[in-house]
Amino acid sequence: MPGRLAGKIAIVTGAGRGIGEAIARIFAGEGAAVVVAEKEPRTGRATAEAITAVGGRASFIETDVTKPEEVAAMVAETTRVFGPASVLVNNAGTNVFHDPLETSDAEWQRCFALDLDAAWTCARTVLPGMLEAGRGNIVNIASCHSFKIIPRCFPYPVAKHALLGLTRALGIEYAARGIRVNAIAPGYIETQIAVDYWNTFPDPEAERRRAYALHPPGRIGRPDEVAWTAVFLASDEAPFINAETIVIDGGRSVLYHD
Fold first, then answer.
1. What's the CA dihedral at 168, 169, 174, 175 to 10 degrees?
2. Average pLDDT of adjacent 10-residue blocks, the chain of 258 residues
3. In degrees rounded to 5, what are phi and psi of residue 138?
4. How many domains are there within the chain?
5. CB-based burial label for 10 (10 Å; 0-12, 13-18, 19+)
6. Which entry of 156, 174, 188, 197 is annotated as an active-site residue?
7. Alpha-carbon span 27 to 30, nearest angstrom
8. Which CATH number does the domain housing residue 238 bear?
9. Is 174 a catalytic residue?
10. Which of 146, 179, 190, 242 has its CA 20 to 30 A from that of 166?
11. pTM of the model
12. In this structure, is residue 4 part of a structural domain?
């Protein structure tokens, strides 16, 4: 029985670990040929090798998505190896958290280069091929910071708010030409980044439990749960979902706080 993404060729940026790795792995399991576009060779190669070891189709292409020339080379190599990309998942990103007036120009630029500009660079590089084919799908990994402002997390939410604007603008611009552009906004997800953060506290396990207690299900999300939503959006099961954002946070964003 063919998978839900059979016949699709997907580029997943930042797929060396965490949410990106889960998306790449599950996409391949659902029949897609996957390009692991990752800056770090060790983790990117490991993701691709893990996929091929179980019979999936994957190729690691070392890519710094903040460099347009590397993105162009990656998309050209994708076409050479698998064919033109039909799905792009803009997952690569970084947390940049500061007090606003203590944010240097370099930190502002670092945040926007990876959390916003790279998504546009990747999108504008794959869009011509998608438009020529008359079909295509872009999924941007946004954040709960796209809607909420948490003190001392500047300028990350500014970039993530803008990513939703990019999602909506491109989705509307190209809808009539067979392209869908959507976003996923994860909340607190149990990635290595979260574990590393808990480990900065004197009692990491207590900090983990505190994070769990903030959420109605009594836990936080898993990378696979984000990945399965990406599968749905990238598949032919969601043909009329466009310029939309799906929040994955266990309901925390609608929870009443006094």
1. 30
2. 92 97 98 98 98 98 98 98 98 94 96 97 98 98 91 94 98 98 96 90 94 94 97 98 97 83
3. -120, 130
4. 1
5. buried
6. 156
7. 5
8. 3.40.50.720
9. no
10. 190
11. 0.95
12. no
